[in-house]
Amino acid sequence: MSKSGLLERRIREKIDKGEDSWVVDLSDIPGGAKAFELAAKFCYGVKFEMTASNVGHLRCASDYLEMTEEISEGNLIAQTENFLTQTVLRSWKDSVKALQTCDDVLDIAERLQIVKRCVDSIATRSCSDPDLFGWPVAQYGGPMQSPGGSLLWNGISTGARPRNSSPDWWYDDVSCLSLPLYKKLISAMEYRGISQEIIVGSLNHYAKRRLPGLNRRKSISDVSNCLSITSLTSIPSEDDQKYLLEEIDRLLPFQRGVTSCKLLFGLLRTAIFLKASTSCLSNLERRIGMQLDKASLEDLLIPNISESVETLYDVDCVQRIVDHFLAMDQETGGASPGLGEEGQILASPSLMPITMVAKLIDGYLAEVAPDENLKLTKFRSLAAAIPEYARPIDDGLYRAIDIYLKVTLFRFFPFSP
Question: Which residue in 318, 281, 277 sits closest to 296, CA to CA?
C-alpha cells in the first residue's frame, strides 16, 4: 500500500465500507502474474534483475498499480523509466528485446510510448553505419562479439565487434518482431530516409521466415505437399500467412527494379496458393509487369492450381502480366522502331526491354505448347500480344508454333514416327 496508489485506494475503500474480506482482483494487470511478482518484490525490497526482457511488462504494471513518485520517492515507475532510458534505448540488442515483449501489452506500451521509443532507437541505429558504434552487439542465436570491438571517438571501446558492415546486418534481428511491430519499424525507417532497396531486403528476409512457399520453387508436387509441411513445422496458419503476404504487398514500393523478380514471382505463387485477395494478386502481377524484361523463363512457369485446372501452367496469369508490361511500355514512351534505307529495323536502346520480353514469351510458348489442354485462342492471344517489331528474329515463335501444331495434329491424326 505504501508503494501502490491503486492498492492503497482499493483497500482503503474496503476499510471505509467495513468489509471483512479484502479481496482485490488484479487479474487484468499488464504482464500478468510474473509482472506482479516482480512489482511485489520491489515493494518488499527483494532483489531481482531488471532486464530488457522484463522492463516493458514491469513499466506497464507499475503504471497500472500507480507506483508514482507522489506515493513513494524512487518508486517503480521512475526506476523502470530510468532503466529504459539509460540502458535499453542505448543498446541495439536490448531495444529489440524490449520491443519484442510489447506484444502482450501493446495498447498500454503504445500509450506509455515504450513502442515508439524502442522503434526510434532501432530505426536510428539501423540507418547508421554499424562500424561507427560496433552494432549489433549480438545476433539472436549467436555469441557475443567480444572481447575487443570498435572504438568511439573518445577512444572508449564498445566491447562489441560488428560481424560485418553490410546494410543487411540487422535483417535477422528484427525478423523476430510481430507483424504490427515490424510495420511500425519499417515506417520509421522509411521516414528516416533509408533506401528502398534495403527496406525490400528486410521485407524479403521477414517474409521468408514466415512463408514457406518463398523458400523454394513451387512445382506441382510442392503445392500438394505444402499443407503437410506447414503442419509439421509450427508455421502460421494459412489465414495468418495470407494476411502477412497481403501486408507485405502493401509495404513493397511500387517502383521498377527495386524488388527482384524472383521475390515478386515467389510472392505471386504463394498468393495464388493461399487464395489471397484479388487486389493483392493484381498488385503483384502489375509489379512484375513493370519489369518483366528482368524475369527468366523459370519465373513464368507458374503452376495452375485453380479448381478448374485446364492447363499445367497458368497461361492467363502470364497474359495479364504481359498486358501490364505493354501498357507500361506505352506509358513510358515505348514506340515502334524506325526503318533504315533498305527497310531494315533500326536498333534502339529503348527497344531492349520489349525485345527481351518477346524472346522470353517465345520461350514460354515453346514450354507450354506440348500441353494438350492449351486452347488455340490462348496460344494465339499470347503470341500476338507482342508487337511484330519486338522480334528481330522469328525463330523462337516459329519453334513454339511448330511444337504446338505437332501436338495438336497428333491428337487428331495419331501416327508412329
Answer: 318
